[in-house]
Amino acid sequence: MHEQHANSCKIPKLYATLMRVTHFATRSSLALAVMVGLSFLLPGCGSSHSTPPMVTPPPTPETPELRLSTDPFTNPGSQHATEVEPAAFAFGSTIVTAFQVGRIFGGGASDIGFATSTNAGNTWTSGLLPGTTVFQGGTWAAISDPSVAFDAGHNVWIISSLLIAAQGKVGVSRSTDGLHWGNPILVSSTPDADKNWIVCDNTPSSPFFGHCYTEWDDPGNKALIWMSTSIDGGLTWKPALNTADSASGIGGVPQVQPNDTVVVPIEGIAGSMLAFVSTDGGATWAQSTTISSIVDHQVAGGLRTDPLPSSAVDGAGKVYVVWEDCRFRTACASNDLVMSTSTDGIAWSAPVRIPIDATTSTADHFLPGLGIDPSTSGNSAHLGLTYYSYPTANCVAATCALNASFISSNDGGTHWTAPTLLAGPMTLSWLPNTFAGLMVGDYMSTVFAGGKAFPIFVSARANSGTQFNEAAFTTTAGLAAASASQSVRRSANEAAIPGARSDHPPRGYYDLDHEHRIRPPKKALKRK
Q1: 489 confidence band (pLDDT: 50, 70, 90)
Q2: Across-strand partners of 267?
Q3: Distance from C-alpha of 39 to C-alpha of 22, rounded to nearest angstrom
């Protein structure tokens, strides 16, 4: 149970030197082409182990946390020991989470790690995806953006990730047990790709049972949205399609309703939350519709955040979308988490504030990860929400105190519990840096197994010299859904501030790694 299988990365001196040179470079074609070319000199490396190692307890937890994995890499160019950006999915009693391991400043990581429980969170086994980067027996310079799905029609687990060289390509790794994974299979053929996400139709009565859908955008083409479908468990993928209106966006999170409709909430590039649907198994994708405008506060301290949607679907097919938004705060002084719902992916409810605290509080809330117990629905739907916050929004990097917390609802989001602290306070200097800021992830996750919620989040401790101490965590036991006596907070009938506006300029890049700048439209020349 405690046996470990770790291989140290043996990096040739020439490769190490080049990695030092490109440490703070973007994914430029020249740098990454050299890196990929030299990758064939490198053997695979990594580790897998059962029962994650013991670590020092967090400073002030309200619920015990369990470390899921450890960064085993030593390659130059990555910031070790770091794990960021966990995605997760649960089916039956199995939970699979995937996350970046060894974050690289210019984008991506040394590999994607995974942690799997086959007994509803009682025990976990962790490891690394094979055949991905040059550090793990593959040819890619880095890897990023993990997401997880289960295809019940073909009994296969799938981790989607972004394989990075001169441009990004979406790939999928498959497993029949969530523990042993194959080498990645390419999905995308677009010039570039970013912010991929995957979902499968697991309703046996659906005519599209066993269809899996992957979304991504092309940041080199103004974040044009693409969708591709697999009908054989991710082995092959159909040619990618656009929406009917060739919509642009970032961070789409597709959901499948029991009636086989695929609903894809996504952040629009022009400051709105969008959604689009397919009702024919991915043969076509309808034009996008607007869920709401986005009015968000710029999170302090140089922390990497963005109002990307977090989404989940209940047992009856109602789709929930949550994002960070400041429309209920005077002068956009801080973010709340707001929620909108839809039963068809076309008509959406007005955003309501999730009442974590009063609108007069100084707290800032961001990076939500929403989960719903799939055996519940409607006014009895059990929701779990993992998120990060600062107790004081108006802070600087040296003073910001970062917390990870969890709240839940047992009535479809009408009432919510008081927050449970998962980890923190964390100092921002404990986090790895990127072009877009200090990082715990662009998203977090919450899943349900055995009727209990499992928040999947990132927690950090004080650095040891130049070595970080940041990893993916969950709770030692699942968190029960709120009882009626616990669900005490309600935000019904709260009104947004009239004329609320974001407190920062419009988005400047099509991607979160700041490689593809949004150019303002050229002004027409006046003829004399």
Answers
A1: confident
A2: 250, 273
A3: 15
Distance between CA 132 and CA 184 in Å, rounded?
Answer: 7
Token reading at 337 = 């988490």
**Is the C-alpha dihedral spanning 419, 70, 123, 179 positive or negative?**
positive
Q: Six-digit token pair at 428? A: 């921002």
> What backbone torsions phi and psi does residue 140 show, to the nearest 5 degrees?
-85, 150
In a domain, 140, yes or no: yes
Question: Which alpha helices (H) appear in 6-45, and where do they start and end?
Answer: 13-21, 29-38
Q: Which residues constitute the domain of residue 56?
A: 1-186
Is 39 within the bounds of a domain?
yes
CB count in 10 Å sphere of residue 14: 11
pTM over 0.90, yes/no: no
**Lowest-confidence pick of 123-127, 138-142, 407-411, 482-486:** 482-486
Percentage of the residues of the chain whose pLDDT score is greater than 90: 82
- Split into its structural domains, the chain has a count of 1
Tell me the Ramachandran region of residue 378: left when phi exceeds 0, alpha when psi lies from -120 to 50, beta otherwise: left
* Nearest Cα to Cα of residue 311 among 289, 340, 284: 340
Report in angstroms the alpha-carbon separations of 260 from 151, 210, 214, 499. Answer: 14, 11, 15, 38
Q: What phi and psi values does residue 68 have, to the nearest 5 degrees?
A: -95, -25
Helical (H) or strand (E) element with 311: strand 310-313
Q: Is residue 10 part of a domain?
A: yes
Distance separating alpha carbons of residues 316 and 92, to the nearest angstrom: 17
Q: How far is CA 319 from CA 38, 337, 344, 379, 483, in A?
A: 46, 16, 8, 13, 23
Q: Tell me the residue type at 514.
A: H
Phi-psi region of 329 (alpha: psi -120 to 50; beta: other; left: phi over 0): beta
- Cβ-in-10-Å burial (0-12, 13-18, 19+) of 156 comes to buried
* 41-to-11, 12, 139, 163 alpha-carbon distances in Å: 9, 8, 10, 19
Whether 291 and 321 have beta carbons less than 8 Å apart is answered as yes
**Helix 29-38 crosses helix 13-21 at what angle (to 10 degrees)?**
160
Q: Is residue 5 part of a domain?
A: yes
Residue with token string 């770790």: 6
Q: How far apart are CA 277 and CA 252, in angstroms?
A: 12
